[in-house]
Amino acid sequence: MKQDMIVILDLGSTENTEVARKIRDMGVYTEIHPHDISLEELKKLENVKGIILNGGENRIVDGAPVEISPELYECGCPMMSIDHPTAKCDKKWDAMPADEALREFVFETCRAQANWNMKNFIEDQVEQIRRQVGDRKVLLALSGGVDSSVVAAMLIRAIGDQLTCVHVNHGLMRKDESESVIEVFRNQLHANLIYVDGTERFLGKLEGISDPEQKRKIIGSEFIRVFEEEARKLEGIDFLGQGTIYPDIIESGTKTAKMVKSHHNVGGLPEDLQFELVEPLKQLFKDEVRACGIELGLPASMVYRQPFPGPGLGVRCLGAITRDRLAAVRESDAILREEFANAGLDKKVWQYFTVVPDFKSVGVKNNARCFEYMVIIRAINTVDAMSATIERIDWDVLQKITGRILAEVENVNRVCYDMSPKPPSTIEFE
Ligand code: XMP
Question: 247 CB under 6 A from ligand 1?
Fold first, then answer.
């Protein structure tokens, strides 16, 4: 372990994540651990320079008052508490301390070094992965999303061809997306990559299914089935790589231990496929995951891509999926992304995409009546995806995109812009 660490013990404060972020922003590594950690477990953590007990007003977790095990006070590290109860600590604050006070505790009381950076983090993780995996093999479902891509790059760095990546194309990927996964991982990073084109299989299962929840369930369960089939074909796999990140594990302030447990129930994989997990990003916040990806040499287009739902374009080709409308979603989405990038909006807008409803409207093309689909553009900004506002797009940009979609996308004669915030509208249509 190259990095000094401050441990935050979660005694029920909602501000644990905020404290953790502040300390990491000072360049010092920090981890949040459950309040019931034992002295033995604490001692297994390397390079701990100080401990912060964070209980908010009354040290309550899951409705019950909590305390740390008294033996922890004998651990030999400086301790600080952020709450009212008296504790045997070197420092006490009633509320979240000012940055200066936190800085003084971290650097002067604990004497921690500001040596938290991505290079050191990667070196540490590479070492840990090698220690955990030895000469055995790891399997990873590589969707091409940020988290799985960064895990793949990290595992390639650590164990090379002891890693097998499986990329399942469910036929609902964006234009050229699977191709870029193959290009980056197989051709540039020389990963052991199995590419499964499941397009026919997925579209077959989805035929005639119009209920959004049913569509999602089919895509999810079919995905697991395909992945499982591939896993069974391989021999001697002991580990499963997972793109778990910090926000998946901590639920601000409480239930740390519980969350860890439920999260380890890997995406519904059957019980007879027994894998141990390798989760090298589980201590990173999303922006740190991106910085890690860049440091590992992944292209910015992969690391800074906008969120994309697991069921992919399947929830943007509304109602029962048809191939002509799926192609219209894919092509119009590609045009939208290209023009947003041209206008610099790709760095400004949180999420933007097109959808194609399952009804037609009348239009005129080449002096003749036509009866075709419409494309709806949606562009939103949000902090946490719980609520969202629409982006006020420049009229000229919208007109250019509209013109291109009408000229270049088959079976489309109308383009609309979705003005609805969330709530009441969700970001996706299905
Ligand atoms: P909604 O439509 O609920 O979407 O307002 C909120 C955010 O979540 C994304 N989303 C998903 N992400 N798997 C994902 O990984 C999914 O099944 C899924 N469904 C929606 C959506 O794109 C938006 O960013």
Answer: no
